[in-house]
Predict the structure.
Amino acid sequence: MHSGPLPDLDGTRIRALPSPITAPCQENVGRLCGSPTAGWPVAEGPDRRPPSEHTVHSGPIPDLDGTGIRARPPPITARHAPGDIDRPVRAIQGVPMADRSGGSPRACRSARLSVMLMRHMYPISRAAALAAALFAAPLPSAVRAAGLAATPPMGWNSWDCFGTTVTEAEVKANADYMAKFLKQHGWQYIVVDIQWSDPQAKAHGYRPGAELAMDGYGRLVPAPNRFPSSAGGRGFQPLADYIHGLGLRFGIHIMRGIPRRAVQANLPVEGSKVRAAEIADPHSTCPWNDDMYGVDMRRPGAQDYYDSILNLYAGWGVDYIKADDIARPTHGEEIAALHRAIRKTGRDIVLSLSPGPAMVKDLPRLQENANLWRISDDFWDDWRALRLNFILMSVWGGVGRPGAWPDADMLPLGHIGLRAERGNDRTTRFTRDEQRTLMSLWSIFQAPLMFGGDLPGNDEFTLSLITNDEVLAVDQHGVRGHAVAEGGDSVVWAAGGAGPDEKYVAVFNVGDAKAIDVRVAWPALSMPARCALRDLWEHKDLGTIEQGYTFRVPPHGSGLYLLRHAR
């Protein structure tokens, strides 16, 4: 366990979290920038400068992986109380940005790359700068085609409640609930997570050497004892038909590669002259699951295998694929193979990549080939994990756009852990304030929303969290949500609204001890001095307010607001 300050995040000087985090999490943060954390400077203690003085570092920046971003603004010194952002945040000059529609880059005098404020002003992260620069590139037309994932996908995934063991009856029960209570609010995907082919799946992990059900071509099929409608070679088609009949969409989890049992039996590849052993790479394995070998894309016939499984899935009526063991590290050739195979089917299938955190340097490849990619490891109902995601999401802020979304992982809310990998049967351990904070952060970031709890077990509060149309509009229609400032325990995010005279604002208190006041000045958000303010959680207009507003925020709490120019 790591209980001291975090290493310097590639120049950000954001060093400390309020609670311990695990050593693997610390290592994963380092991977974001494509380098290990070893050798990074670690703060020896709190900064001893007066907390009222904030200095922005100046001087040249090394070229960021060829982006050509080199210059910082001149040094400035500001004096203000922590939590107060009356002064506009300085930004790096000359970074081109693109509008959310994926159009041509437009020049900006100052790119909206925020300088962090945590007791003193910090220089911008090189990773965040690189992400924003790459974000300026036009979105590939293949990803934009047919409006696939035009907004962050919203749905349910079986992992947080049922782990590897979900049954057909449980999937249908969650689909029925979604159709009745959630579909009208934009929720549409029902996703069956890992090892649906294991007839003897167990809670709290995986079975080594599991005898996975598969066809004569080495393609995994549902275990009939868990999915009775799949018997007789029908696969997931009957279940997909049921879900489609509710007006919803159906998704499945897959692992990168080809089943080891198919390789051992040297089964033929459907539609190809090659056999499994000729394309498998026994040295390319998943460190936490032993079901598969990687596919060596250099070998003739390797693409044929991915084509064969996508033909099967498309025939079942699959609309969403969560591909695992493929984004950390990035297996670029197999990602591209999946993308090509999906395109060949002619069916609109969302491709989501796991696990995270993905690396910022891989952004062009991810945008070209996938619709979603994970930016965090598995996320559970622990405040320390949520606090870490504030940092990870700030690195990727502003990158999401139609067809290509950074994914902060599922929402471990409601009734989870029934037969999960992590923990036992429980209601989420997040407090109500923390649950709103989670939904506010995911929404202002424009993250995919995949609910992890067993939907039929929702209480009224949980249902209210995921049916607040004003909050969901921030996620679905906000523009380039990004961190604006941090000061002490306060964090402020902003995103563009539906028009040029609107902006969404989220305020957070990440401290543990007491409520704080967070002062936000409208000019700091590039808004006019006179604005109307609406509380989106409470569905309440707060009036027309001059210059700015002071928000009172409880510990681990948040607020989410719509700011509109009042003429």
The chain is about 25% helix and 20% strand. Residues 51-138+481-565 form a domain with the Immunoglobulin-like fold (CATH 2.60.40.1180). The chain has three domains: 1-48, 51-138+481-565, 153-475.
